[in-house]
Write a structure and sequence with these properties.
globular; binds 5-amino-5-deoxy-1-O-phosphono-D-mannitol; Rossmann fold; 8-stranded antiparallel β-sheet
Length: 606
């Protein structure tokens, strides 16, 4: 989603800004722009790729201070005018902004009455005019930003530059910003990975903070007035820039990284002889685990699907009620928070605004939330304080793949840990741990020989709609398969618990309709077999994901087998053919696999 990069120092800003934007590209965007100060403020902005912006300013704009932005449209269409930076009418202030100004519609006419001429349809533009207004009234840059922010409602991560000033002012409320402090130079980014090549000394802005950033120096202030503490953190992990290696796309690369990523996730966390797992970062003793009355998991998209698998595993192994919540709905429904319940917020990026809001709502009402997060030091990880890192490594493709397997594995390990503290026997625990440790090798074996994926591609690529079915832990896998195919190949997909299909979606089936069924060899398999037959009776074409050597294969038109495991762990294997199906279908349809239209990697607005 929108990204920010800023620089103040002795070097030419433009090349650094362009490199910063390039590093933020993976988040998804539709336009980009820069503003550089060289006495006066010069702005260049454009819809399309960062490379197109770069070719628009081939010789660079001279100057040592600048801000830049990748925009993912919310308010106002995808146009050059709506791209950031936005500049004041007197060209003395420029701003880049992530987030949403909720009262922009009310403020706009008031500013127009004062003579302001708006150049874009964005909510962000009101900020630049408000700041310029207070500057005109004689306020300092800091006080102008403060006064402007007191007038707006909403969320922001923003950077402001001023003509004739060698500072960048940044502020945060709900949208992340990190300041990197170098030797005689400073960097600002909405994502720490854009900073790590320059410095490991960073200040993560907290909500309600404003920073005045100059070359190598930062002054921290509070929006409410007065100074704020300056907490310098060492950036822990530099993932560097993931390169494609031998792969044509990040999505395929990340699918193939799953065995190794899973090893990273489970390594040191399973206790084979005790039949147990230990997720130390949760900081929960056996005694505490015994007393938890309810586990509630929250996430969006793929993370939600991992939560749905996790909740079934927790109930099954620990016999404690568990629920999975759509994080984007959570806080708006005035949820009842039991302070004794355990909340787990699940997120790859750790920046998803909907999940973050849910976390804050729980904390506000006295609940405790642990994070299950991939990106170290991300906002959700820091907001939760304690939790589990899933160690997937960088995930660059918009479609999440290896994060799903690792989130699911982390939640299964948690379910074993809480299970062993309660009702799970050592023997059953040992069996699960043994099977879990075998999955990375099984994934490797499957990826080396993935079966007739291209036949399945042929069956779905021209379909009006694809139906995905599964029961138990395979129902979230069905949802994940549908989400993948929809987001990268733009094919309408429905996912249903297999039995629920006959309560409605069966009406959609026609001769030849592709139905993808996930049917591992569990206690629900025979029931799923009946549902397959119901589909077949209507002429549907069955693409069946099943375990090697299972006779359910005879129900399939296209049969794709995965290695055998214990039922609860089957999502770690059955999801992979679905990822490959989506990837290869997108390629066949000539879609931009790694950057699907309209989507963003980190969804930082609610
Ligand atoms: O970073 P998060 O895990 O919090 O992201 C949640 C969703 O936005 C994400 O899973 C999204 O649905 C992916 N594009 C799915 O492939």
């Amino acid at each position: 989603m929108c990204g920010i990069f800023g620089y103040v120092g002795n070097r030419q800003a433009t090349p650094l800004l362009m490199e910063g934007l390039r590093r933020l590209e993976y988040r998804g965007y539709d336009s980009s722009g820069v503003a550089v100060i060289n006495g006066q403020i010069e702005v260049a902005k454009k819809i399309g790729k960062v490379s197109e912006l770069a070719s628009m300013i081939p010789t660079g704009i001279e100057g040592n201070i600048g801000i830049s932005h990748t925009r993912w449209a919310t308010h106002g269409g995808v146009t050059d005018e709506n791209a950031h930076p936005h500049i004041s009418n007197q060209s003395n202030v420029a701003i880049v902004h992530n987030g949403i100004i909720e009262n922009a519609r009310q403020l706009r006419p008031r500013l127009e009455k004062q003579g302001v001429k708006f150049l874009s349809e964005t909510d962000s533009e009101v900020l630049v005019h408000l700041i310029a207004h207070y500057l005109d009234l004689g306020s300092t840059p800091l006080s102008s930003v403060r006064r402007a922010l007191h007038r707006v409602r909403g969320t922001w991560g923003l950077c402001v530059v001023f003509e004739g000033e060698d500072i960048i002012i940044c502020a945060r409320n709900g949208s992340p910003l990190v300041i990197g402090i170098g030797e005689g130079e400073s960097f600002i980014a909405s994502d720490q990975h854009a900073l790590t090549q320059y410095t490991d000394r960073a200040i993560f802005l907290e909500d309600g903070e404003i920073a005045v950033v100059s070359a190598g120096k930062v002054q921290m202030h509070l929006l409410s007035g007065g100074r704020a503490a300056q907490n310098i953190t060492t950036l822990e992990e530099d993932w560097g820039e993931a390169d494609l290696g031998e792969f044509p796309h990040f999505m395929l690369k990340e699918i193939h990284e799953q065995p190794e990523a899973l090893r990273q996730c489970i390594s040191g966390r399973t206790l084979s002889s005790e039949g147990n797992c230990k997720l130390g970062g949760l900081e929960l003793s056996s005694k505490e685990l015994q007393k938890i009355p309810h586990v509630r998991l929250l996430g969006c998209g793929t993370s939600l699907h991992a939560c749905q698998v996790g909740r079934l595993a927790i109930e099954k192994l620990a016999r404690v009620p568990a629920s999975a919540h759509v994080a984007s709905e959570f806080r708006h429904n005035d949820p009842i928070i039991d302070p004794k319940a355990l909340f787990l917020a699940v997120s790859q990026s750790g920046e998803t605004a909907d999940t973050l809001s849910a976390v804050k709502e729980i904390q506000l009402k006295g609940g405790k939330v642990r994070g299950v997060v991939n990106v170290v030091g991300s906002t959700i990880a820091r907001q939760c304080g304690r939790g589990v890192y899933i160690h997937s490594g960088p995930e660059q493709a918009v479609a999440s793949t290896k994060a799903f397997t690792n989130m699911t594995a982390a939640l299964v390990m948690f379910s074993i840990q809480i299970g062993r503290a309660r009702s799970l026997t050592r023997n059953r625990g040992r069996d699960l741990v043994k099977n879990l440790n075998a999955i990375p090798d099984q994934l490797e074996a499957y990826l080396a020989n993935p079966g007739p994926i291209m036949e399945a591609v042929k069956a779905v690529k021209e379909a009006k709609m694809v139906l995905f079915l599964g029961r138990g832990v395979s129902a979230p896998v069905a949802r994940e398969g549908a989400l993948k195919l929809m987001e990268v190949a733009y094919i309408p997909c429905l996912a249903y618990p297999a039995a629920e299909m006959k309560h409605g979606p069966i009406a959609l089936l026609e001769p030849g309709s592709p139905v993808v069924v996930i049917a591992p060899n569990d206690e629900l398999k025979e029931k799923t077999r009946s549902n397959i037959q119901e589909c077949r009776a209507r002429g549907a074409k069955i693409i069946l994901i099943h375990e090697e050597g299972d006779d359910i294969a005879e129900e399939a038109d296209i049969s794709i087998s995965v290695p055998i495991t214990t039922p609860l762990l089957s999502p770690l294997l059955t999801v992979v053919p679905l990822q490959l199906l989506a990837y290869n279908t997108a390629l066949e349809l000539d879609c931009d696999v790694d950057r699907p239209r309209n989507l963003a990697k980190s969804v930082t607005v609610e």
